[in-house]
Design goal:
Distance between the termini: 54 Å
Helix content: 55-70%
GO molecular function, one term: hexosyltransferase activity
Number of strands: 2
Number of domains: 1
Family: Belongs to the glycosyltransferase 87 family.
InterPro entries: GT87, UCP010361
Protein name: DUF2029 domain-containing protein
Subcellular location: Cell membrane
Strand order of the largest sheet: 1-2
Radius of gyration: 24 Å
Strand content: under 5%
Oligomer: single chain
Shape: globular
Structural class: mainly alpha
């Protein structure tokens, strides 16, 4: 017998033509008499298992590097598109020597110029735990393989958390998380670096916010920002939306909890004490100084401009900061002037996408930051797959370009002109999805999430809240609504006399 709750679930094979066409591989669109969620195979469990399966396929794709590519021949890991930072940094950051991140200086013979670990504190802890779990026997190559494998297992757990949290964030739309589980770029980039840890904490934060638990969401945002800086950006959309809805108490609770959680994690590592008092520890600050000082790097619009013009763009930090400020002001205006208050997931996706687009580097694994947000912001299969195709093209492009530059006079791989085209493709793919999200905000009747009458399933206390502070045409409409309400109340009162 089908439950009332299952009757309310939005099914993508019913509302999305691409999902319906793709479902032919497994029997076609769901029928009226289909029994879903009444046995063990609930949507959340199915999505989690699919995500785990895709992650495993991504691990298989790294098999040529696991066998030999990370160790024998610099270009093999590029020609097979299976590069990962994880095995290289095991020895390159002193984990095999038992060095403690942020406290022990890395010998130059190991790091190639990096004196301390250049990752935030919680990511450093993640790396250290994996190093402690790595067996000490065998050759260095054996230990590097095992270190990657242990990290992959921990990142697999993060993937399951992301899938479950995303499936539960929109109560009536759990199947939207299938976009995350089946995203090809997600599977390909999952074990390049440690980004999935921060993504999992961010997904959990959005789940807590959708349940109206502002403080818990803030704590998770603070922890996520202690693992990777970008989750702190989510406080910006929350400020705008809570301001518009008159729910500033919820925002202040979340913001205070985020700052508190970040400090609890960072203060023990951040400060050192000597006879002159407290000082910022050099090892802790390495992530921030490295991010500030690094030149323009792979995947960014700045690298494209630099390669085309020959200008190293030493002022890229200033340009990126200016564009980020202007973009955030524009999003704040969008959030306050839109005819209907944007959904939290929409503004969250836009602000993180803006940060990536103007950043000095757009690494292939940064797509992991966007995939869960994109699935919640615009769960439309056609547009999501177009964007994913652009990201897969770039994923292949960067490795073949590195194979070209690392193969000496042979130049086997993708020449600079081809790599520049790959950069433009993946930048345009992200901009394409951003444009669609902005259109949905300006024309809320086109928002697929709101077609069934929903307001903001991921909005928590914002879901269904009235607008209190609005600007532009939305302000005029709000004043008209208030005036109409006052007239109705006055008329009712008159009739009661």
């Amino acid at each position: 017998m089908r439950s009332a709750r299952d009757d309310q679930l939005v099914r993508p094979t019913v509302e999305d033509e691409v999902a319906a066409a793709g479902s032919e591989l497994i029997g076609g669109p769901v029928g009226r008499r289909a029994l879903i969620g009444v046995n063990w195979w609930t949507p959340v469990r199915v999505i989690a298992l699919v995500a785990i399966g895709m992650f495993a396929l991504g691990m298989v794709q790294k098999l040529p590097c696991y066998d030999h590519g990370w160790f024998f021949g610099a270009t093999t890991q590029y020609t097979h598109a299976c590069y990962s930072d994880i095995p290289h940094l095991y020895s390159g950051r002193g984990f095999d020597e038992g060095l403690l991140p942020y406290f022990d200086r890395i010998p130059q013979s190991l790091s190639g110029g990096m004196d301390y670990l250049e990752y935030p504190v919680l990511t450093g802890l993640f790396m250290e735990i994996a190093a402690l779990l790595t067996p000490g026997g065998g050759t260095l190559q054996d230990r590097e393989r095992m270190y990657w494998f242990i990290n992959a297992g921990m990142l697999l757990a993060c993937t399951a958390v992301i899938a479950v949290c995303a499936a539960r964030t929109h109560r009536r739309r759990p199947w939207d998380a299938l976009l995350i589980a089946l995203a090809p770029a997600f599977a390909l980039t999952a074990t390049i670096n440690w980004d999935l840890f921060a993504v999992a904490l961010t997904a959990a934060a959005m789940l807590m916010w959708s349940r109206g638990r502002a403080v818990a969401a803030g704590v998770l945002i603070g922890l996520a920002a202690a693992a990777k800086l970008y989750p702190a950006l989510l406080l910006g959309p929350l400020l705008v939306l809570c301001w518009r809805a008159g729910r500033m108490r919820a925002f202040l609770g979340a913001a205070a909890a985020a700052v508190g959680a970040w400090l609890v994690v960072n203060l023990p590592v951040m400060l050192t004490y000597d006879a002159d008092g407290f000082h910022i520890r050099e090892g802790w600050a390495k992530f921030y100084t490295f991010s500030q000082d690094r030149p323009v790097d792979f995947g960014s619009v700045w690298l494209f401009i630099s390669q085309r013009t020959g200008d190293p763009l030493n002022d890229a930090n200033d340009y990126a900061t200016l564009l980020m400020i202007l973009g955030c002001l524009g999003m704040a205006a969008l959030g306050l002037c839109a005819p209907r208050r944007p959904r939290f997931a929409q503004l969250a996706f836009l602000v993180v996408a803006l940060f990536i687009l103007v950043n000095k580097v757009y690494s292939p694994q940064y797509v992991l930051w966007l995939v869960p947000l994109a699935a919640l912001a615009r769960p439309k299969w056609r547009d999501f797959l177009i964007w994913q195709a652009c990201e897969v093209m770039y994923y292949l492009g960067i490795w073949f370009y590195l194979a070209y530059t690392g193969s000496g006079d042979k130049h086997q791989g993708l020449p600079p002109e081809g790599y520049q085209l790959a950069i433009i493709v993946h930048l345009l793919g992200t901009l394409y999805l951003c444009a669609l999200v902005v259109r949905d905000i300006l024309k809320p009747e086109r928002d697929v999430v709101r077609r069934d009458g929903s307001d903001d399933p991921s909005g928590g206390v914002l879901d269904g809240a009235p607008d209190i502070f609005v600007l532009g045409s939305a302000r005029r409409e709000r004043h008209a609504e208030l005036s109409q309400g006052a007239r109705v109340q006055w008329g009712t009162g008159s009739r009661g006399l």
